[in-house]
Design a protein that fits this description.
Blueprint lengths: L6 H13 L3 H8 L12 H6 L8
Length: 56
Amino acid sequence: MLDQIDTRFLEDLHRVWADYPPLRRLAAAALGHKPRSRASKNYHALIAMFPGGTIR
């Protein structure tokens, strides 16, 4: 199955989902469920929390 998925297929799927999201997302939005926020990719802020380089 994975050999049938290519970049063009994924782009088309993303485009369709933008107009018609999956039912589970519609149901979650209707019920007021908020998705979890994604983890930050700002590693500079994380490193700045430990100026001495020691994590305790």
